Amino acid sequence: MSSPAAHFDADALRRWPDLEGPDLPAMDAADRLILEEWSALRTGFEDVVVIGDGYGALTLAAADAGAHGIRVHQDALAGEHALAANAARFGLQGSYRSMPLDASLVAGARVVLLRLPRSLDALRDIAGLVAAHAAPDVVVVAGGRLKHMSVAMNDVLRERFASLDISLARQKSRVLIARGPHDGVDPVARRAVVDGLVVCAYGGTFAGPTIDIGTRFLLASLPDRLPDEVVDFACGTGVVAASVALRHPSVRVYASDQSAAAVASARETVAANGVADRVDVVREDLLSSRADGSASFIVLNPPFHVGGAVTDDIAPRLFADAARVLRSGGELWCVWNSALRYRAALERIVGPTRQIDRNTKFTVTASTRR
Fold it and tell me: Where does the Methyltransferase small domain start and stop, copy by copy (predicted)?
């Protein structure tokens, strides 16, 4: 197996349409180490699956090295779009297929290149799926940054694989190589009843099958009367969407998230609570399917990390798209950690902003579209 070179230029990889910046690389040392360890194994180019590729580094390097028919799953839709844009840049369109995290993704796989998720539950879902459907001689080459890895990840992989080799750490990264799949199982959403609401969550979704304290605070602060449609932006597991639909039987909810796991979780949450007929759950980057000025009420609990990177640039991007979608006089209700001081950004991007409630940790605001 030759080293990735030829058409593929790692330095030319971009994160677009996701956030870009000097401290937000499209390919890092963990990606390079995964590729190097795979190259050393000389496992060939057939039946290659890539899971968790950030922006196409693993997929396109593998394609450039000779792999073809690569099957890929990326949880973030922005990552899928970045992979497509990078593939076009390097002339590698058609070298891969983007697929959901299900049996078809890993059926008969001989090699799985895995960027380790930070969530142990997400890793359990992936390991169980691979063990259930990949070829008996599959080799899983899983890597990540040391700061996001734990010894517990070894234990999770050992639950589904007979052997696990651990590489030496290099450039603050490490690779785990798993072989001998056994006792595989398809992912199943974890469920819990919290405050009378059934919460469903696949691995990797924020807060899992619980209701995080920021969302609790937002729900307690929402007004008693709502318009005919509410938009739950960055909906996560669908807690807000399901809660609003249950409280307001005449209201329809449009719930969106770019995470495949979040969307799958939200669909199960709204179904489990009997409101699926009034909640539309959509996977999209930002609110890209919504027309300008098409909403009068949006709720948002904005994330503050992109993959493993924590940044305060995410929320303003979401505020801007919410402002685009809101009609004049429409409102964005937002909960945020008070230390982040988002009010000035909300005033600038959306419009006049008033504080609805505040406790020792969180602030809820309502911003009116100019």
Answer: 198-365
Structure tokens at 81: 């779009």
Q: What is the dihedral of CA 206, 208, 211, 213, to 10 degrees?
A: -50
Query: CB under 8 Å to 227, separation ≥6 — which residues?
Result: 251, 296, 297
What pLDDT, on a 0 to 100 scale, did the predictor assign at position 6? 45
> Would you say residue 363 lies in a domain?
yes
Kindly state whether residue 116 falls inside one of the protein's structural domains: yes
Q: How far apart are CA 326 and CA 264, in angstroms?
A: 26
- Measured between alpha carbons, how far is 269 from 281 in angstroms, rounded to an integer? 10
Residue 268 has φ and ψ, to the nearest 5°, of: -70, -35
DSSP track, 106-149? HTT-SEEEEE--S-HHHHHHHHHHHHHHS-TT-EEEEEEEGGG-
Q: Could you list the residue range(s) of the whole structural domain that residue 275 is in?
A: 190-368
Residues 75 and 164 in one domain: yes
Q: What is the pLDDT of residue 4?
A: 42
- Residue 241 has a pLDDT of 98
**Co-location of 331 and 203 in the same domain:** yes
Residue 246: predicted pLDDT: 98
Tokens of 122: 């997400």
Are residues 167 and 205 both part of a single domain? no
What's the confidence (pLDDT) of residue 311?
A: 57
pLDDT digits (tens, 9 = 90+) for 198-239: 999 999 999 999 999 999 999 999 999 999 999 999 999 999
Whether 87 and 97 have beta carbons less than 8 Å apart is answered as no
User: What is the distance between the alpha carbons of residues 299 and 61, in angstroms, rounded to a whole number?
Assistant: 40
Beta-carbon-side half-sphere exposure of residue 241 (alpha carbons within 13 Å): 36
pLDDT < 70: residue spans in the chain: 1-7, 305-312
Contacting residues for 188 by C-beta, under 8 A, at least 6 apart: none
Q: Give the distance between the most distant pair of CA atoms in the chain.
A: 63
CATH number at residue 333: 3.40.50.150
CB pairs under 8 A, 24+ apart, for 190-196? 190/121, 191/272
What is the C-alpha separation between 96 and 117, in angstroms, rounded? 21
What integer pLDDT is reported at residue 279 of this predicted model?
98
What is the spatial distance between Cα 60 and Cα 51, in angstroms, rounded to a whole number?
13
